[in-house]
Specification:
about 190 residues, alpha+beta, Alpha-Beta Plaits, 4-stranded antiparallel β-sheet, about 50% helix, elongated
């Protein structure tokens, strides 16, 4: 086969080789270089349109009345958050809400023990406490469901159940639970 190629005159072979090189170069330009140039042009147009949009932005100016309404709305929202995250460490309020809800749900609380608090970040702390109570299964589910709708955030970290029968032969659950709530850190004091 090489003999046949060498029998072709040198001028024609050279022309064919040059044409093949030109075709490879043209294909490279068409399939690789041209899409890159189009992509660069598209990015340049996007950049220009963004620059125009940014130059047209103007700061929002509020009148005094609008500003006052915004501040009042912000204050209302802050007061709502304070209900959920009180700014003082007060286990009495927590006791009243959590144990009061338990009693309304038919759950008999035998222990409510504060466990101190641990700082979560600069703004709020976790207030830990433990509870022991006796209840039936249905009352326990009802209590846990209603606990979710308190004004405070209450997390149940862990709990254990141990069944026992009372004098009447009714199955009672002894529950030991580890819970926590949250509060705002008091500026300049507390942990």
């Amino acid at each position: 086969m090489l003999d046949r190629i060498f029998k072709i005159p040198f001028k024609f072979r050279l022309i064919v080789e040059v044409l093949i090189i030109v075709l490879i170069g043209g294909a490279y330009y068409y399939f690789y270089y041209t899409p890159k140039i189009e992509e660069i042009d598209k990015l340049a147009r996007e950049y220009d349109s963004l620059a125009i949009k940014i130059s047209q932005l103007k700061p929002i100016e509020l009148s005094y009345d609008q500003f006052k309404k915004e501040v009042e709305l912000l204050e209302e929202q802050f007061q709502m958050v304070l209900k959920i995250l009180p700014n003082e460490k007060n286990f009495n309020v927590l006791y009243d809400e959590v144990v009061g809800l338990a009693e309304k749900s038919g759950v008999k609380v035998t222990l409510f023990q504060p466990g101190g608090e641990s700082r979560v970040d600069e703004f709020h702390s976790r207030v830990n406490f433990s509870m022991n109570f006796q209840t039936t299964y249905v009352e326990l589910i009802n209590y846990l469901y209603r606990l979710n709708y308190l004004d405070k955030i209450i997390d149940i970290n862990s709990f254990s159940l141990s069944p026992q029968k009372d004098k009447d032969g009714t199955l009672i659950l002894n529950v030991k639970a580890s819970l926590n709530s949250y509060r705002f850190n008091v500026p300049g004091g507390g942990k």
